[in-house]
Design a protein that fits this description.
Shape: elongated
CATH topology: Arc Repressor Mutant, subunit A
CATH superfamily: Winged helix-like DNA-binding domain superfamily/Winged helix DNA-binding domain
Number of helices: 6
Structural class: mainly alpha
CATH class: Mainly Alpha
Largest sheet: 3 strands, antiparallel
Order of helices and strands: HEHHEEHHH
Radius of gyration: 16 Å
């Protein structure tokens, strides 16, 4: 039995939103982080990704699958049991993502200040 994903896995003000480098859509880095420790069902992913609509999460998972980063496995039953897991290619994204997240965390205040100054100019 796997350890459940914690509901507070991601801070509401997650630095991934500020990262200037995107790995796919807005939610992809968070999905990849959720899959780091092994396969997960959609309902398990929804716990820490509660801010993501089911439609957006499905879109992110399909995009990851299309690019070979995630494998979707469906086991027969009623209802069918579907799990998502990182492929070796997807696992290769973990280290670069950690570097980008660390950089964003280190420069968080500077980026927030820059955003605020930019938005002030537009008003």
């Amino acid at each position: 039995m796997r350890e459940p994903l914690p509901p507070d896995m991601f801070d509401e003000l997650c630095p991934s939103d500020l990262a200037p480098i995107r790995f796919g859509d807005k939610w992809v880095p968070l999905v990849i982080a959720c899959l780091e420790d092994g396969p997960r069902r959609f309902s398990e992913l929804r716990v820490p990704l509660r801010r993501v609509t089911p439609k957006a999460l499905t879109k992110s998972l399909r995009g990851l699958e299309r690019h070979g980063l995630v494998r979707r496995t469906s086991q027969p039953g009623t209802p069918p049991r579907v799990e998502y897991e990182l492929t070796p290619l997807g696992r290769s994204m973990l280290e670069p993502m950690k570097v980008v997240c660390a950089w964003a965390g280190e420069h968080w205040e500077e980026m927030l200040d820059a955003r605020e100054a930019y938005d002030q100019k537009l008003r």
